[in-house]
Amino acid sequence: MTNLQIEELSPTTIVAVNKMLxxxxxxxxxxxxxxxxxxxxxxxxxxxxxxxLENDRVxxxxxxxxDPGAVREEFRSVLWRINVEAEDQARGIGRFAIxxxxxxxxxxxxxxxxxxxxxxxxxxEPFFRAVGFEPxxxxxxxxxxxxxxxxx
Length: 152
Description:
The chain is of the alpha+beta class. It has one domain: Aminopeptidase (3-Layer(aba) Sandwich), CATH 3.40.630. 24% of the residues lie in helices and 32% in strands. It is built from four helices and seven strands, in the order βααβββαβαββ. Mean pLDDT is 83; it is low at 32-38.
């Protein structure tokens, strides 16, 4: 895993992101990648989209938004999506991506990042808890709102 690097989403890497596979049952916990990518067109200044590469192969995608003017507090510094290729999960790649996300949030003046997710047997909650997110509330749709604080 020493060959991991993170870079901006690009026309070259977006094709690989759209072809990423998840483990069985995980797909029900997220909207299609293309939906998330399309929403970034709204204001590219606030969106942060990166891929994690291992030896020039896309192994993960992470998308977040940093908008201090967002009307709802939970959307000001928020992780929208993190996907790690099925065969590459549980190798520290997601943790690597979250580390870079927290660095970016800090660089932009935030001391926290939120995430919203549904609970379920194959859902993302164990991962989010393992990287420091703690539940702080619930959306009007019953999704968990979790937050990780950045201490620098």
